[in-house]
Amino acid sequence: MKTYEKENFILNDKKLFIFDMDGTIYLGGNPFDFAIRFIKNLRKSGKKVLFFTNNASHTTPFYQKKLARLGFEPLADEIMTSGDVTLEFLKRYRAGKSVYLVATDELVEEYKREGINILTGDEESADIVITSFDTSLTYKKLDDACRLIRGGAEYLSTHPDMNCPTENGFIPDSGAIAALVTASTGKTPTYFGKPYKETIEMIGEATGFSNDEMCIFGDRLYTDIALGKKFGVTSVLVLSGETQPADVEAADEADRPDLVFGSLDDVDKIMF
């Protein structure tokens, strides 16, 4: 890996530091101690922090409690998920539409509370089908989703991640579920979360920072790093999660991160 000098380090002038969660600041229920230290140092130096995860199997209140328990001391307005971005899209552009949501009960209940017309899946038709990272997935849910999509429902997905890293290895994520639905129906969903424009727009609106004032840290080339590369946000890859050095070498030049580190520990040592 390339070495970076403390003086004139590109991240020194950034104002908003966006962190992926799984594989970047923790694995499953195990926090990276150096990530806690780095984020504390950022706060002390006046930098703003945002935790953004594509993992929509849980909602913002869950992540606030989890991050607090792990030692990250988050505020509620410092957390955002792909589920939040998808929900905002529905409110703005699909108000009143009926939705069959293939997701955890936690996400389904949040969408109901926010006024989304959620179906059971037994209906003859739906305006929209959304699939997400559903750890309670059943064959009936898949069957209902595919049937409704074949019947003309618009197909959306909260995020494209194929695998979710855990302390015990990878498990199938939202993208893998969507791939199954696509294989059955021939319909590819419109994705949200990282690396799509709705996400960077929502971050900008929520924080007030411009893209060139932001940097994003993550462990995936096709979500975290791609968001930065597409929208002018400095992208920092850490090799503590899904992506391996060989993956970076195999990527096209235009898809490679601006910076690569073994972990956030290396970034902390340069900046502080």
Provide keyphrases for this structure.
10 helices, five-stranded parallel beta sheet, 272 residues, Rossmann fold, globular, six-stranded parallel beta sheet, 20% strand, alpha/beta, 2 domains
How are the SSEs placed, and which strands pair?
Elements: E1 16-19, E2 26-27, E3 30-31, H1 33-44, E4 48-53, H2 60-70, E5 79-81, H3 82-93, E6 98-102, H4 105-113, E7 117-118, E8 128-131, H5 139-150, E9 154-157, E10 163-166, E11 169-172, H6 174-185, E12 190-191, H7 197-207, E13 214-218, H8 221-231, E14 234-238, H9 245-250, E15 259-261, H10 264-271
Helix pairs in contact: 1-10, 5-6
Question: What is this structure, in a nutshell?
Answer:
The chain is α/β, with parallel strands linked by helices. The chain has helices at 33-44, 60-70, 82-93, 105-113, 139-150, 174-185, 197-207, 221-231, 245-250, 264-271; strands at 16-19, 26-27, 30-31, 48-53, 79-81, 98-102, 117-118, 128-131, 154-157, 163-166, 169-172, 190-191, 214-218, 234-238, 259-261.
Describe the structure.
This protein has 2 domains: 123 residues, HAD superfamily/HAD-like (Rossmann fold, 3-Layer(aba) Sandwich); 109 residues, Rossmann fold (3-Layer(aba) Sandwich), CATH 3.40.50. It is built from 10 helices and 15 strands. A 6-stranded parallel sheet has the order 5-4-1-13-14-15, with helices on both faces. The protein has a 5-stranded parallel sheet with strand order 7-6-8-9-12, with helices on both faces. A two-stranded antiparallel sheet has the order 2-3. Strand 2 and strand 3 form a beta hairpin. Helix 1 runs parallel beside helix 10 and helix 5 crosses helix 6. The protein is globular, with a radius of gyration of 19 Å.
